[in-house]
Amino acid sequence: MSGYPLEASERLLDVSEEHQQTQQDMLTWMLLKALPRYSSHNDDITGLKPYKWPNELMNPEGLEVKYKGTTGSKQLNLAITSTAYNKLECHKTATKYSKARIVQTLILNYRFLTEAQRESKRIRDEKYRLISEGYREERTPPTPEEIQRCREEIDRIINRSEEAWDDIFDGLKEGYQERLSENDDDTNE
User: Fold this and answer.
1) CA distance linking residue 91 with residue 113, whole number of Å
2) Distance CA 155, CA 164 (A)
3) What are the residues whose beta carbons fall under 8 Å from the beta carbon of 65, sequence distance 6 or more?
């Protein structure tokens, strides 16, 4: 990648130290989290290629890329994952900006979650993990009074539905008996 302003390389170094990660891991993280999703899941049986990348973005024809940007005195040469690289390649094609320009802008403008946001996300992720594994949220067990109220409510609902069915059957029975008596009257005449 072309030269970056010292500012971008310094920021990458600072955030990697702050998050106790290597610079290449931090850059990979930024690329994976900040760039839009271009891939779809692959149905490859072997599982060796988990993503499908759009061919028109990976291998464009007649692409003109804007390379003019700020130049720096330091060039980054970091290994990133193939997924991050493919995402960067697709983004280059989609935006028509060079990979160097995209990476430089990303490093300078990427904003990490605050401590409170990270804690909130950690709690939410843990909750969803437990739910996906079949666990429920911890709840206090119901009190005997709550259990009794639920039983009474269920009994009330069951009695109400039994009464409704009784009314329906009584109505049907009365209607049937009326028709029988009408038929008897018709046959007697």
Assistant:
1) 23
2) 14
3) 92, 96, 97, 98
Q: What is the pTM of this model?
A: 0.56
92-111 pLDDT per residue, tens:
888 888 888 888 889 888 88
Q: Which amino acid is at 165?
A: W
Sequence letter at residue 19: H
What are the structure tokens assigned to 41, written together?
Answer: 């899941």
Q: Please tell me the least confidently modeled range out of 16-20, 85-89, 167-171, 181-185.
A: 181-185
For 87, 174, 187, the CA distances from 183, given in Å and listed in that order, are: 83, 14, 6
Amino acid, single-letter form, for residue 15? V
Tokens linked to 62: 């007649």
Q: Any residues with CB less than 8 A from the CB of 37 and at least 6 apart, and which?
A: 87
What CA–CA distance (Å, rounded) separates 103 from 118?
24
Q: At what angle do helices 82-95 and 23-34 cross, to 10 degrees?
A: 50
